[in-house]
Task: inverse folding
């Protein structure tokens, strides 16, 4: 018999989204509003640069941190967009934002360190924190319009707090933080030594005003996660950017190097094109997502849901009316079985998720319209 593998892996559950998808995937004709993937193709000019890279046999390893031209171009791109001020030496090209998050946590956490997260939150952080021996500390934001407030943050900080993860615009709520709200949080975090992991993967998808990053407010403490998955509809290319002060980046590089060596050379060529000549590639997608968000918001409100209008990303996190007795898992299963519409039960994202569901509008307008008709029939 083999010796046992590490025991803490049994603390990690299969993602709630996956579990629910498996449950409803056999239902005929189901419209999935469950996915967090753009439904747009990667821009043509980006695809062409990758094709050319293959033709030119650009198929070897790149430097571990990524192609120097790409790190330079990414530094310019993020500085022009959000005044991040990271030099090319302060950027690692990673395998999606996911690897960037994993490396950031792996680098800073020691056993017993606490990491503050908003609740509800993207389910990708907690397992990584737990595996690294850290302790997730959730701040309930369901009564503050899904925003962390300075008061709540202050109350959550202890001597063991090592980091806070700030995913804005948020998956699953679509809510983001304004410059004034970020400034107020910065005042609490400044001089605490706490790392701020700012997951800004949805930064290009904001509908009311341009994205503001917390990095210029806390330049020494902030680790920024970004990537091209959402902004350039490049999920499958797996390109992310991990950005941090150089003293941290040099340590992070050790983990990146011995885990993946480097991101795909072909994808890096595509990424170089995206950040060099695709500055405005998100615009048509953003316009379309905004139209869909307005349409879905109107339909949900007419059905009797109370909804917090999203500022960005492509999700609604919707509360079930009190008149519905079911918890959101049972409710979502019935919706899928009776009206062939799939949304994710909120328990995948939140300790309070029993009364919520996440709806993704990264689906075509026709599909969304049909889904809203079916949901309206279900709500009757
Ligand atoms: C908040 C958040 N961060 C990170 C990721 C992962 O991004 P990537 O596909 O680039 O790894 C996602 C994907 O849905 C996300 O929603």
Result:
């Amino acid at each position: 018999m083999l010796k046992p593998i590490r025991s803490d892996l049994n603390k990690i559950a299969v993602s709630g989204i996956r579990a629910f998808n498996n449950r409803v995937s056999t239902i005929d004709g189901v419209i999935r509003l469950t996915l967090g993937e753009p439904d747009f193709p990667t821009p043509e000019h980006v695809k062409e640069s990758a094709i050319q890279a293959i033709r030119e046999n650009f198929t070897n390893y790149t430097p571990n941190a990524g192609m120097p031209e790409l790190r330079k171009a990414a530094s310019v791109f993020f500085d022009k967009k959000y005044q991040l001020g990271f030099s090319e030496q302060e950027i690692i090209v990673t395998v999606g934002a996911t690897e960037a998050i994993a490396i950031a946590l792996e680098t800073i956490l020691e056993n017993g360190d606490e990491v503050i997260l908003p609740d509800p939150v993207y389910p990708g952080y907690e397992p990584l924190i737990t595996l690294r021996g850290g302790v997730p500390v959730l701040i309930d934001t369901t009564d503050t319009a899904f925003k962390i407030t300075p008061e709540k943050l202050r109350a959550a900080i202890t001597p063991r707090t090592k980091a806070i993860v700030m995913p804005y615009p948020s998956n699953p709520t679509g809510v983001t933080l304004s410059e004034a709200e970020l400034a107020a949080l910065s005042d609490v975090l400044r001089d605490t030594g706490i790392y701020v992991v700012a997951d800004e993967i949805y930064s290009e998808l904001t509908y009311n005003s341009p994205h503001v990053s917390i990095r210029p407010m806390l330049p020494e403490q902030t680790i920024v996660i970004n990537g091209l998955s959402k902004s350039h509809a490049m999920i499958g290319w797996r390109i992310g950017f991990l950005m941090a002060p150089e003293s941290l980046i040099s340590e992070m590089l050790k983990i990146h190097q011995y885990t993946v060596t480097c991101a795909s050379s072909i994808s890096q060529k595509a990424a170089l094109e995206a950040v060099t000549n695709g500055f405005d590639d998100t615009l048509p997608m953003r316009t379309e997502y905004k139209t869909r968000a307005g349409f879905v918001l109107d339909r949900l409100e007419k059905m009797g849901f109370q909804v917090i209008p999203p500022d960005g990303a492509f999700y609604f996190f919707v509360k079930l009316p009190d008149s519905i007795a079911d918890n959101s898992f049972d409710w979502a299963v019935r919706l899928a079985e009776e009206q062939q519409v799939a949304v994710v039960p909120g328990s995948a994202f939140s300790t309070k998720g029993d009364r919520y569901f996440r709806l993704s509008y990264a689906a075509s307008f026709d599909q969304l319209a049909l889904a809203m008709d079916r949901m309206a029939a279900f709500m009757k």
Q: What stands out?
A: The mean pLDDT is 96. Residues 36, 96-98, 122, 124, 167, 171, 199, 201, 227, 229, 235, 240 surround pyridoxal-5'-phosphate (CB under 6 Å). The longest strand covers residues 161-167. The domain at 44-277 is CATH 3.40.640.10 (Aspartate Aminotransferase; domain 2).
